[in-house]
Amino acid sequence: MRTRITPTASTVEPNIRRIAEVGACDVGYSFVALSRQESRGGQCVSNVGEIYEAACLARSLGCRYLEVKSELTPDHHLESWSSQFSSELASELDRCDRLVSETFEVLVSQSLLDYFTTESAQPKSYVTCAVTRLRTLITPTGMYPCAYHRGKERFRLADLSESSLRDAWIGADLSLVDPSVDCDFHCSRHGQNVWIHGGDESVERGGKPDFFL
Ligand code: SF4
To test the ligand 1 pocket, which listed residue (129, 135, 188) has its Cβ within 8 A of the most ligand atoms? Predict the structure, then answer.
């Protein structure tokens, strides 16, 4: 019988340290900034005050980076943060600057950068998605253009229980998805699409490489 092991800090942290010590690849992890209302009408709580501490921990474990991400709503729009948490978030990110060195970075996800600069909705003018070939998602229920459209029957490109991966890949009709109609929510690949489609938005984030493309 297989025993399910629930990961805890005491098991994950030594493993991260060990992988980092081997030095075969860049090791890092993500921090998802969240806020929650404790109960209906209750106090709103958030973990944004723990970002600096998470970055200290990542650095002490030998990580190459910590990435800070924004929570999205279930339909992929940016969460709206209270002004209290917004300023705490900005101040935590500022504090993290002092941890940055030649061997450690604090990366801020595109969604979090966009949170400070854009509206929650993200209208798109392009009608094909140029990054689906890089973000194609294969699940037990089928193959989809990207994680955002996972499980949506209309965008199922293939059923891997009925065709080979090769046939599914070659036969996938990626024009099924029209971002100008189907993706008005916040997509973290928007910048790359604009850049590939000839717009002037930079694919790089503040000059830093995108590790997750
Ligand atoms: S624009 Fe974004 S959400 Fe739409 S298909 Fe491309 S990657 Fe997916």
Answer: 129
CA count, 13 A, side-chain hemisphere, 198: 3
Within-domain flag for 1: no
**186 Cβ closer than 6 Å to some ligand 1 atom:** no
pTM attached to this predicted model: 0.70
Same domain, yes or no: 22 and 80: yes
| CA nearest ligand 1 atom 5, residue | 129
SS3 call for 143: strand
Number of other residues whose CB lies within 10 A of the CB of residue 96 = 21
Burial of 208 by CB count in 10 Å (0-12 exposed, 13-18 middle, 19+ buried)?
exposed
Residue ending a domain, among 116, 141, 166, is: 116
Is residue 125 assigned to a domain?
no
Closest CA to 33 of 93, 75, 121: 93
Give residue-wise pLDDT tens across range 21-75.
998 889 999 999 988 777 777 788 889 999 999 999 999 999 999 999 888 888 8
* CA dist., res. 47 & res. 58, Å (int): 16
